[in-house]
Amino acid sequence: MDKKALTSMEKVDMLIEQYISTDDKSAITTLLNDKGDKFFSAPYSSNKEYYGAKSGGLAEYTLAVVYHLCRLNPQMNAGLEMSSLIKVGLLHEFGKIGYGKEDLFLPQESQWHRDRGMMYVINDKLKGFDPKGRTMLILQDYGIHFNEVEYQAMLEYEGQYSDSNKLTRYRENKLTLLLQWAHIWTITQDKI
Predict the structure, then answer these.
(1) How far apart are CA 157 and CA 184, in angstroms?
(2) Residue 116, domain extent
(3) Which end of the chain is less enclosed by CB atoms within 10 A, N or C?
(4) In which band, very low, low, confident or very high, does the pLDDT at 163 lie, cut at 50, 70 and 90?
(5) Is the Cβ–Cβ distance between 1 and 19 less than 8 Å?
(6) What CA–CA distance (Å, rounded) separates 135 from 119?
(7) Mean pLDDT score, 24-29
């Protein structure tokens, strides 16, 4: 799978059509029909020091993670189903779009801050959930379900270094480990 080939909405549609199970396909398609505009235009982060602080940064990040997941699976001889790789790869940071009509990231109004790379501010109306919690809330709203392996990956993708992953540290399943590696590689190495 060529990373550059995964840059458009049509490619996401192709991934869903080709790899997502029939049970999940309808719900994920509905989600993207309703929220796709936000997903494909949302930034991944608020500061240029980090990955994806630009319009479309979230989709760019997501597609890079999917690319790395699909490459890591055979290289690590993990034997994971493509449907799980694509599903968690596409959806694990979906909460960064915001919730309801509210965007998570709002354009920074201060030129002083923008000159220093701080391109967005976090919407005060959405500070009650972290992006993982908001992701799961959105996906629940659309009836998107996960098996135990996928669910762990959705919650623990930030890796062993995150305090929130303390209980699963060194007990991660293969999908969680691959997602952690794909996530870390994307935000650190792909940014360069």
Answers:
(1) 9
(2) 3-188
(3) C
(4) low
(5) no
(6) 22
(7) 95
Report the number of distinct structural domains present in the chain: 1
- Which tens digits make up the pLDDT trace of 80-126? 999 999 999 999 999 999 999 999 999 999 999 999 999 999 999 99
pLDDT band, very low/low/confident/very high, at 134 (cuts 50, 70, 90):
very high
Alpha carbon 106 to its chain centroid, in Å, reads 19
Inter-residue contact 133 to 96 (CB < 8 Å):
no
Query: In 3D, which of 24, 69, 94, 65 has the Cα closest to residue 174?
Result: 69
Q: Which one-letter amino acid corresponds to residue 128?
A: G
Q: What is the DSSP string of the chain?
A: --GGG--SHHHHHHHHHHHS-HHHHHHHHHHHHHHHHHHHH--S-SBTTSTT-STTHHHHHHHHHHHHHHHHHHHTT----HHHHHHHHHHTTGGGGEETTEESEEE---HHHHHTTB-EEE-GGGTTS-HHHHHHHHHHHTT----HHHHHHHHHTT-TTSGGGTTTTT---HHHHHHHHHHHHHHHTTT-
Using alpha carbons, list the distances in angstroms from residue 159 to 5, 130, 153, 170, 186.
Answer: 27, 16, 10, 10, 13
Q: CATH number of the domain that 44 lies in? A: 1.10.3210
pLDDT band for position 25 (50/70/90)? very high
